[in-house]
Amino acid sequence: MAKIDLKTLKIEAEKDIEKANNLNDLDTVFKKYLGKKGEITLILRSLKDLSEKERKKTGKQANELKKFLEEKIKQRKPGFVKFSTDKEFDVSVPVQKLKVGHLHPLTLVRREIEGIFEAMGFSVISGPEIENEWYNFDALNIPANHPARDIWDTFYLKNKLLLRTHTSPVQIRFMEKNNPPFRIVVPGRIFRHEATDASHEINFYQVEGLMVGKDISAANFKAIIQEFLSRFFNKKIKIRLRPSFFPFVEPGFEVDASCTVCQGKGCSVCSKTGWLELMGAGMVHPNVLKAGGINPNNWQGFAFGVGMDRLAMMKYKIDDIRLFYNGDLRFLNQF
Ligand code: DAH
Fold this sequence. Notes:
The chain has helices at about 5-20, 25-35, 40-45, 50-85, 105-120, 135, 170-175, 220-235, 285-290, 310-315, 330; strands at about 125, 130, 160-165, 180-190, 205-215, 240-245, 250-260, 275-285, 300-305. By secondary structure, it is of the alpha+beta class. The strands form two sheets. A seven-stranded mixed beta sheet has the order 1-4-5-9-8-7-6. Strands 2-3 form a two-stranded antiparallel sheet. A hairpin with a 4-residue loop joins strand 6 (about 240-245) and strand 7. Helix 2 (about 25-35) runs antiparallel to helix 4 (about 50-85). The chain is elongated and about 115 Å long. The structure holds 3,4-dihydroxyphenylalanine. The site of 3,4-dihydroxyphenylalanine (DAH) has 12 residues, from strand 8 and strand 9. 3,4-dihydroxyphenylalanine (DAH) binds next to strand 8 and strand 9.
């Protein structure tokens, strides 16, 4: 058997690796030396024909060379994957379709609500999520120490700032800068210091409404909300008003909608009453108009506040508000 010259083989192999221009070339080099019939493979296979001394020496060297070349080839590979001008990068192959995200159910619902109100002549307005006590409470006719502050407990920040507990403060902010008549809706995020469960979250979304003019009445409110709900739920919705108390309105009412599931006949969703509690509303309190710089002797109007999460839950039959916020794709991918 011819004397095995591993040194020359190493020099040759290194040159070959160096010369390779693409992954194909590298593959050929691999086969030439390390493939099934590669030169080094054959040497390793023929060791059994050598004397014991020779076998040990050559075996060790050949194995070292094998590892060395494998490593060299591996090192050259990454460069080709990106920059090869050869076949490996075929620009004509269709790319894998990129997965783009989609809108969150609350965003879908917000946009739909905005669209319906815009079609009825309302402007969409926004306000800050960080508020001060004046806008969140005092200006809304909830003075310090008034028990109503308990219902809207929140997270207090430094410098007497707080996270707003409702979108109502934007009523004041808007009135300060705009003269009546006007009609606005204010969708936005709000915060509550509350324990969470299927129907409570520490943050959720509301839509505030405010319409002020010379003779805007509760009848206007009823017509507009009935129209809004019928468009939103895509079916005729009836509403009823029940007297209720909110410091920022007088009179105040709670608005119930005919059950969207049973159409008012009575089912488990509406506890057999045929009605679902939906929102708070009322005629804007004179003190609130004053706080916004509007003379209550000349102007009047209605306001309402409705939970956007609640509307979304009713529309899509979702039974746990927390699903909106925990990022579970099994839920989100259904929209
Ligand atoms: N701000 C109230 C809340 O968060 C909801 C509300 C009730 C808003 C009556 C109004 C209203 O504008 O007139 O519970």
